[in-house]
UniProtKB/TrEMBL annotation:
<dbReference type="InterPro" id="IPR019554">
    <property type="entry name" value="Soluble_ligand-bd"/>
</dbReference>
<dbReference type="InterPro" id="IPR004509">
    <property type="entry name" value="Competence_ComEA_HhH"/>
</dbReference>
<dbReference type="InterPro" id="IPR003583">
    <property type="entry name" value="Hlx-hairpin-Hlx_DNA-bd_motif"/>
</dbReference>
<keyword id="KW-1133">Transmembrane helix</keyword>
<dbReference type="InterPro" id="IPR051675">
    <property type="entry name" value="Endo/Exo/Phosphatase_dom_1"/>
</dbReference>
<keyword id="KW-0812">Transmembrane</keyword>
<feature type="domain" description="Helix-hairpin-helix DNA-binding motif class 1">
    <location>
        <begin position="204"/>
        <end position="223"/>
    </location>
</feature>
<feature type="transmembrane region" description="Helical">
    <location>
        <begin position="56"/>
        <end position="75"/>
    </location>
</feature>
<dbReference type="Pfam" id="PF10531">
    <property type="entry name" value="SLBB"/>
</dbReference>
<keyword id="KW-0238">DNA-binding</keyword>
<dbReference type="Pfam" id="PF12836">
    <property type="entry name" value="HHH_3"/>
</dbReference>
<protein>
    <submittedName>
        <fullName>ComEA family DNA-binding protein</fullName>
    </submittedName>
</protein>
<keyword id="KW-0472">Membrane</keyword>
<feature type="region of interest" description="Disordered">
    <location>
        <begin position="18"/>
        <end position="43"/>
    </location>
</feature>
<dbReference type="InterPro" id="IPR010994">
    <property type="entry name" value="RuvA_2-like"/>
</dbReference>
<feature type="domain" description="Helix-hairpin-helix DNA-binding motif class 1">
    <location>
        <begin position="234"/>
        <end position="253"/>
    </location>
</feature>
<dbReference type="GO" id="GO:0003677">
    <property type="term" value="F:DNA binding"/>
</dbReference>
């Protein structure tokens, strides 16, 4: 391409730009609405905004850019779905099956027995219901040396509130001093291999008798010191603190020799 052709192209482009600018006539007056007319002084000729082709193109580009920016903002602010944890499965309970469930086992019933006398650990022991005298002696640490076990039925079943009295075994050929016995609560009866001798029993041996406490045992010892030996069990009624009901309980548990 020669320089002449280049100059011709430049000239044509400049003519086109001039033609675009000539489309607007600044001498043309701008009219105003009638309601604005009146005493307002004539402002004279006004300039009308005419962006031209390039201005329109620039506005179109700006509008496109603004639309793009707005689209990006809307796209970024769109709601994002969140994963929801699955709910736990719920199963129906069959009432017929629930009603046949095994019941909670109750605690085994217990009895409280008093074990006194020649045992290693005398006092109250707790035993399962249906226990025997042998179980009570084992719970009390066993019998001491010289204890009378012949007067006890080791296979006898015990009831709540029973007392097991373990006495002293007599030497061969002698009279028992304080034999062993099992006494039921409030009955006054005894299974005994040798009643307690009122004339030879110690204060502690008398204290171990059912219904006889330390005060009554001391009163029996005092009566014996003042009056000598007992000649009859009925004389216990003369001791302070022993009435007819208590005497009836002790009648089969004591003797005089």
């Amino acid at each position: 391409m020669g320089s002449t052709e280049i100059r011709e192209q430049v000239r044509r482009r400049l003519d086109a730009a001039v033609d675009d600018a000539d489309e607007f006539d600044p001498a043309t007056p701008v009219t105003q609405p009638g309601w604005l007319a009146g005493d307002t002084p004539d402002p004279g000729p006004r300039v009308r905004f005419a962006p031209g082709r390039r201005g329109v193109a620039a506005l179109a580009v700006l509008a496109a850019v603004a639309a793009g920016v707005g689209g990006v903002v809307v796209w970024r602010d769109r709601p994002v779905p969140q994963a929801v944890a699955p709910l736990p499965a719920v199963s129906a309970v069959d009432e017929s099956v629930a009603s046949t469930a095994a019941p909670v086992p109750e605690a085994a019933p217990e009895i409280v027995v008093s074990v006194v006398g020649l045992v290693h650990t005398g006092g109250l022991v707790r035993l399962p219901d249906g226990s025997r005298i042998a179980d009570a002696l084992a719970a009390a640490g066993g019998a001491r040396e010289g204890a009378d076990l012949l007067g006890l039925n080791l296979a006898q079943k015990l009831a709540d509130g029973d007392q097991v009295l373990v006495g002293l075994a007599p030497p061969p050929g002698s009279v028992p001093v304080a034999g062993s016995a099992t006494v039921g609560p409030g009955t006054g009866g005894a299974t005994t291999g040798g009643p307690v001798n009122l004339n030879t029993a110690t204060e502690s041996q008398l204290d171990e008798l059912p219904g006889v406490g330390p005060v009554t045992a001391t009163a029996i010892m005092a009566w014996r010191s003042e009056n000598g030996s007992f000649t009859d069990v009925e004389q216990l009624g003369e001791v302070d603190g022993i009435g007819p009901a208590r005497l009836e309980k002790l009648r089969d548990l004591v003797t005089v020799r």
